Amino acid sequence: MERTAGVALWRQIAERLRTDIRNGTWKEGGKLPTEQVLSARFGVNRHTIRRAISELSAQGLLSSRQGRGTFVENAPSPLTYPIGPRTRFSEIISRQSREPGGRLIGSGREAAQPWLVEKLRLSLGQEAVHRLEVLHVADGIAVSLSTNWFPAHRFPDLVSRYAETGSITKALAAHGVADYIRKKTEISARLAEPEESRWLQLAEGAPVLVTDLVNVDEAGTPVQVSRTRFAADRIQLTVEN
Amino acid sequence: MERTAGVALWRQIAERLRTDIRNGTWKEGGKLPTEQVLSARFGVNRHTIRRAISELSAQGLLSSRQGRGTFVENAPSPLTYPIGPRTRFSEIISRQSREPGGRLIGSGREAAQPWLVEKLRLSLGQEAVHRLEVLHVADGIAVSLSTNWFPAHRFPDLVSRYAETGSITKALAAHGVADYIRKKTEISARLAEPEESRWLQLAEGAPVLVTDLVNVDEAGTPVQVSRTRFAADRIQLTVEN
DNA sequence: CAGAATTTGTGCGTATGTATG
DNA sequence: TCATACATACGCACAAATTCT
Q1: Domain ranges of chain A
Q2: Which of A15, A183, A239 sits opposite B185 (nearest CB)?
Q3: In this model, does residue B48 exceed pLDDT 70?
Q4: Which of A64, B69, B107, B120 could be A70's S-S partner, Cβ–Cβ 3.0 to 4.6 Å?
Q5: Which SMART domains match (chains A, B) (predicted)?
Q6: C-alpha angle A135-A137-A138 in degrees, rounded to nearest 5
Q7: Which of B163, B148, B59, B152 is closest to B104 using CA atoms?
């Protein structure tokens, strides 16, 4: 393993093992190579391997027993999140037979930043937006954190409607938006920020997938801008062509 | 800034500043807040801020001058990589008026892993594949590293054809594949592995966007499986709906 | 069943990296 | 720049649980 640059060796190794487990290198219940072998393979001290394993054990992915070895405890199949014109969180999760849930964790009314004015095509003097922060959960596990912005003048009661119904689709419908479609999605990745780590229960420094999207109504007018951060180790995005 | 294991504070802050610069929080030529202010904002010692700034300076993103301040030297607009049924690397890059380049960095013939057998729909006894490792470059900057697999029995001379033409499209055409389209794309993110860091000239522990795709010919038969790792700080994927 | 071999668990000393003031 | 504290990583040794012969 290559020497440093601000990321501890044990963390790099832990992330490697995590993706190996996810890719099925060792099946659930399967046995990992011995600490001996792993330390030789990564070219590090056994203590370092043990630190990495202990991290994954604490997260319930692995378990070690003295004299026996280290075993894969849980290899949760990653959720798949299709990106298309009509993706709705709850439908997707339900289709994969998991219990969906959204939790309103913050909201507010604020002045739109320039990039938001452009994306929502706000006109002069109507630059106020509602901001809605929602944590998405599947089977009790946090999978994504989304920040949503809506033009405040068009959707004055959006926050309370969402609070009542727990659904953005329904909150928009209450304001006369019968249908909306996803126009464009931008996808990037970066390291999680501390607040994101907290909500998504990620290790600090874990990667997040970020999607930026614009939803438009039937007339093509933007009704919602949304920035969603997915826990990259729990979800995979797919695009069908 | 929150105290946490495995990732140095200065790295977390460097990554934050990098995404802020990319998001245009400070324009090119713009002045960053003083180290004083930044250290207060992140709740860390000024030394730590300086370490983060020095990292970004070494990468040519920032520059500091005594008595004046720290300035944004380079805010390269991120390349946008659209994902659709007919995306070809060179077309995309050219359209954004950058000089594209692909470099063959490795190849080989090997037995297909089970998941490859499934994705390429290989029949029994024809499980050999060609592997092609290509580094993609735009304007002299590495943007992605892709591993490509092809059924060896159908495309016996693929590697040499690619070496001659520098184009997968042409190498496939030489084997009678007039056209192909992208069937499905899976997108995930993880930390770069050491070898990826080396090729993409990434800092260790930097995130990569990973896309897995299957290309099929006009008859719908898989001709290529490809896994591409993008430097997440240099590229953004987009999906048009 | 005894004893050897294997594998994880633990302790200590040292050197270097990270973060503060 | 210096001093201090803690985290990271290494190397060695040995203990404890389990498996193999």
Answers
A1: 9-72, 79-239
A2: A239
A3: yes
A4: A64
A5: HTH_GNTR, UTRA
A6: 165
A7: B163
Q: What angle do CA B153, B155, B157 make, to 5 degrees?
A: 110
Report CA(A34)–C1'(C4) in Å, whole number. Answer: 19
Maximum average pLDDT range among A8-12, A27-31, A74-78, A135-139 = A8-12
| Cα A147 to Cα A124: distance, rounded to the nearest angstrom | 23
- For residue A87 the two structure tokens come to 């993706």
Averaged pLDDT, A199-211: 84
Q: What are the distances in angstroms from CA B13 to CA A57, A205, A211, B19?
A: 28, 11, 22, 10
Q: Do A236 and B190 touch (CB under 8 A)?
A: no
Nearest-CB residue to B5 (from A24, A193, A204): A204
Residue-by-residue DSSP string for B126-139:
--EEEEEEEEEEET
Strand C nucleotides, any atom under 7 Å to a protein CB: 6-12, 17-21
Pick out the nucleotide with least CA–C1' distance to A66: C8
Q: Of A117, A144, A141, nearest to A129 (Cα)?
A: A117
What class, spelled out in words, does domain B9-72 have in CATH? mainly alpha
Say how many residues make up chain A. 241
State whether residue A141 is helix, strand or coil.
strand
Q: Which amino acid is at A200?
A: L
Q: Extract the tokens encoding B215.
A: 């290309």
For residue A111, the cross-strand partners are A128
Among A1, A204, A238, select the one facing B7 at the smallest CB separation: A204
Unique residue bearing structure tokens 């720290």: B70
Instruction: Give chain A's mean pLDDT.
Output: 87
Most confident of A66-80, A143-157, B20-34: A143-157
Per CB-CB distance under 8 Å, the chain B contacts of A241 are 83-85, 181-185
Residue B13 pLDDT greater than 60, yes or no: yes
The structure tokens 């460097």 sit at B14
Assessment of whether the complete model's pTM goes beyond 0.90: no
Assess contact for A192 and A202: CB atoms under 8 A.
Answer: yes
Give the domain B79-239 fold: Chorismate lyase (3.40.1410)
